Amino acid sequence: MARITLSGLAHSYLPHPGGEEDYALKTMDHVWEDGGAYALLGASGCGKTTLLNIISGLLTPSEGRVLFGDKDVTMAPTAARNIAQVFQFPVVYDTMTVRDNLAFPLKNRGLPAAEIAARVEEIAGMIGMTPVLGRKARGLTADAKQKISLGRGMVRADVNAILFDEPLTVIDPHMKWELRTQLKSLHREFGHTMIYVTHDQTEALTFADKVVVMHEGRVVQMGTPEELFETPAHTFVGYFIGSPGMNLIDARVEGSKAYVEGTELALDRGYGAPQGRVQIGIRPEFVTLNADEGLPVKVRRIEDVGRHRIVRADFFGHEINAIAPEGWPVSADMTRLAFAREKIGVYADDWRLNGEAA
Amino acid sequence: MDKPTNQKAWFLVLPVLLLVAFSAVIPLMTVVNYSVQDTFGNNQFFWAGLEWFDEMVHSDRLWNALGRQALFSTIILLIEVPLGIFIALNMPKKGVWASVCLVLMSLPLLIPWNVVGTIWQIFGRVDIGLLGHSLAAIGIDYNYTNDVLDAWVTVIVMDVWHWTSLVALLAYAGLRSIPDAYYQAAKIDQAGRWSVFRYIELPKMQGVLLIAILLRFMDSFMIYTEPFVVTGGGPGNATTFLSIDLVKMAIGQFDLGPAAAFSLMYFVVILLISWVFYTVMTNLDREDGQ
Asked: Do A139 and B288 count as a contact with CB atoms less than 8 A apart?
C-alpha cells in the first residue's frame, strides 16, 4: 500500500503532440493519499481511463512521473507494480474454474496453497460465488463473470491500490447497490487505496471519500462530495453534479454587485472587475420561487419527483431551475426567483473566483 | 398460420442433387460396384461378394502402407501445429511488416502440389540441387533416392514447408481476435508468459486450431502428388503412402476389385479419425456444463 503521486503528468496518444488539444491528459500534479477511497468522475472521453491505465502501468505517460510512496514507477511494468484493476467488461479465464480464476493472482505471487484457499473462500463469500466455485468460468452469465473479475481484483491483500474502471456497467441494478456496499466495507476493513472510475454521480458520491472530477483531460476539482456540491471549482462540476445541475447565468460583475439582464443582485464577496466570460452560478436548491423578490421569470413547468418539486422557469430565454421542498406552497402569482445570496458563485471563463470579503 | 404446401419446391433442390450425384454419389457407387465384382477386361464382371475386402484386410501391403501413412500424418501434425502456433505468436501484430509476413506466409500455399514436388525433387538432388549438393559438399551423405531416412526427412520437410503456413495463418487469425483487455488483465494479475499462452491464447485459439488440425490431418492422410513426384514411393516401398499404393494397385496393376475395396476402407478410416478428432475437441469445449 502506498500513496500515489502524479507529478507533471501528461499524456498524448500521438507520437509528436503539437498543441494542448493533442493531449488526452493535460499536465497535472496530484497526490492520492494512501488508503483513500476516490471516485474519478467525468463524462465519456474525458481521460478517466487513460489516467487509470497510466497509474496501473498499462500505458506509459508521454510526460511526467508516477510515484508509489517514494518509488518512481513511471517506467515499471504493470506486473511489477502489484496493483489490481477491474475493467468495464468482464475478463475471466474461460478454461479455469471459478476457484482457479480467483486464485490466479495469488498463485502468480507464489503464495502457500493454504493461504490461497482461505483467501479465495473469503472473497467468494463476499461476492456470493461460493456455490459455483467448482464450475468452469465459461458459460456463466455476464453478471457472474464480472463478479469474478471484481473478486480477482480484491483477492490480493497486499496490493498498492485497486482501480475500478466503471466495473458495474454490466451488473443488475439491485446487485450494483449490493456490490458497491461490499466494496465500501472491504475498503473499511483492509484500507486499500481505491480509485473508482464512473460517469454516474450517484455511484461516485456514495462510494468515495473524495471525488475527482475530470473534464477534457484535466482534473477540475478534487474534493469531498460536500465541497463539490457547495463550491464547485469549475462550471463543469456545477452542472455535472446535482440533479438538476447548477444554474449558470451570464452576468456583469462589478465589485460585490452582479447585473443580470438589468437586474441587480447583491453578492457576498467582492470580485473586482473580472474579465472573460463571466457567469454567476447557483444551485437550484438555493433558489426559491416567490411572489415578491428576485428575478422576474416565467414558470414553464413544475415536475414532481417525489421528495421535492423542480421548478423549470424561463428568464429571458435562459432556463433557471429551482427546487421547491415538499409542502412549499406554489401559486400562480409566484413569478420571481430569489437566490440565497451567500450561495452565489462567480465564474470567469468557467473557473470559480474566490473573491474577497466585502 | 397455415403453411402453403407446394411440392414443386422440390425442383429447387434438383440442381444441387444432380451436382452432388455426379460429383460424389455416382463415382462412389461405381467404386462400390467394382469392390464386389471381379473383371478380366472386356467389360465382363463376375460377382465376388466380400472377397476383396477379406483379401485387403489380411493384406500386409495395405497394413504397411497404413502404418507408414499414420506415422507420416502424426509426425507432420506434431511438427506443423506447434511450429505454426509459434510462428503466429511471433508475427508482428500490425503495420507494414504484418502484411509482408502474411503475404510471405501464404506463398507456399499458392504453389500447386506437383510444382512443390518438382521444386524439392530438384532442390534435393545431389548432382544439381542446391540442398543436395551443399550437403554433399560439407560431407553429409544425403541421398533421398537411396536412403530411407533421407527420403522420409525430405518428404516431411517438404510438407512442413508447404503447409505450416496454413496452421500459422489460422492461429494468427485466432490470436488477433483476442481483445486487449485479456492481456491487460493478465498483466494486472501478474501472469507469466506461459500462463498467458496457456490460459488466454490457447483457449481462444481452440476453434481455429480444431479446423487447422482437421484440415492438416485429412490432407496429409490423402497425400499423393508431392511424395510421388519426389520419391515415387521409394526407396523400395519406404514412402509409398496409402494413395500412392492405391494408384499403383488400381492403374499400375489394374486390380480394380481390390483397389476399390481398398479405397472404401481408406475412406472409412479417414471419416472415422476425423470424427474422433472433431468429437474430442468439441467436447473439450463443452465440459463446463455440470
From this structure: yes
- Between CA B198 and CA A100 the distance in angstroms is 13
**A109 pLDDT more than 70:** yes
Identify the pLDDT of residue B1: 61
Mutate to test the interface with A, among B180, B183, B187, B188 (most CBs of A within 10 A): B188
Note the pLDDT tens digit of each residue in A210-241. Answer: 899 988 888 888 888 888 888 888 999 888 88
B95 in contact with A, Cβ within 8 Å: no
The per-residue pLDDT for B290 is 37
Extract the C-alpha cell encoding A219.
482534473
Give the 3-state secondary structure of residue A205. Answer: helix
The C-alpha angle B227, B232, B236, rounded to 5 degrees, equals: 115
- Residue B287's pLDDT is 53
Indicate which of B190, B200, B202 best probes the interface with A, i.e. most A CBs within 10 Å of its own CB.
B190
pLDDT tens track for A22-77: 888 888 888 888 888 898 888 888 888 888 889 888 888 888 888 888 888 888 88
> Å from A162 to nearest chain B CA?
10
Note whether A79 contacts B187, CB cutoff 8 Å: yes
Beta-strand pair A247-250/A4-11: unpaired
Between CA B155 and CA B165 the distance in angstroms is: 17
**Cα distance from N-terminal residue to C-terminal residue, chain A:** 46
Domain at A4-235: CATH code: 3.40.50.300
- CATH among 3.40.50.2000, 2.60.120.230, 1.10.3720.10, 1.20.1300.10 for B33-286: 1.10.3720.10
Contact A281, A239 (CB under 8 A): no
Q: How close A93 comes to chain B (CA, Å)?
A: 6
Is A244-357 CATH 2.60.120.230? no
Q: Which residue of A has its CA nearest to B190?
A: A79
Instruction: State which residue of chain A sits closest to B206, comparing Cα positions.
Output: A95
Which residue is listed with cell 464382371? B45
Beta carbons of B187 and A93 less than 8 Å apart: no
CA–CA gap between residue A48 and residue A69 (Å, rounded): 22
Residues in Cβ contact with A208 at an 8 Å cutoff, skipping those fewer than 6 apart? A37, A38, A39, A196, A225
Smallest Cα distance from B219 to chain A, Å: 30
Q: Under an 8 A CB cutoff, do B184 and A57 touch? A: no
Report the gap between the CA of B95 and the closest CA in chain A (Å): 15
The verdict on A3 touching B (C-beta cutoff 8 Å) is: no
State the Cα torsion A330-A334-A340-A346 to the nearest 10°: 120
